[in-house]
Design brief:
This protein has 265 residues and is an alpha/beta fold. The protein has 9 helices and 12 strands.
Amino acid sequence: MSVFAQAPYFKVLCLLLCSSFNAFASSSKPQSLTAATLEYPPYEYTVNGMPRGIAVEIIEEAVKRTGVDNIEFNFYPWKRAVYSAQNGDSDMLFNAGKNEARSKWGQYSKHILILQKYVLFKRRLDQIEVNNNFNNLEKHSIAIRLGYLYGTGPFRQAIDNNKFARVEQTNSTKQSIDMLLGGRVDMLVGDYLPVMHYIKRNRLEHAIDIIKDSNSAANKVVLTWPTYILFNKKKVPSSYIKKVDSAMQQMQQDGFIEAVFEKYQ
């Protein structure tokens, strides 16, 4: 059979291959996305049913820059949010710390979404100094959040090695602050922005202060904790996740992310 006799077959094969390639290329960019998280102002929360917050605005812009216009935010208790993304009911989980178990079903964005900074809050009139080894706190009690890991560094070690007079576990920022103002603990540890959001909303600036670093006037940061967007591997192609990372890198460079954080200070 001559090459000319095979031409129609070759043409059909090319058309099939081209259509398959186009289908794959279009599938690399989803038409819409669903995102799951918990209510955690000012990072992510709702106002009259509408999503708001630092992380929400950053993700909306990143997704928009990839050419996807539709994203739905759903808010659940944290364990349910994780389950929703893990089982494919949601395309992504966000404001998520890294751990090995989640990496089995999800792919993390390379770009940090939120760098949480944990500081120590005290009653404004109390004089408390904290050194870098946390070994001068045997007379002071602290409130920590139930279920929080607090990393593996000096602060976590201080909790594990009983360097505080007493450690109280709480279920919310409100409960921690109520215990502090009620004199039941001497300090609480909390992520700076969410705790300050609560303090300002409840007009408690006159009553609560942040412990400063002994060598400067800066707030004493006892822990930094990066969080990310976590995509379900089976629902979102790796090629699209790279586009989101590129968009977030661009947003960092052009000042968009900094402007969002300043908006919520």
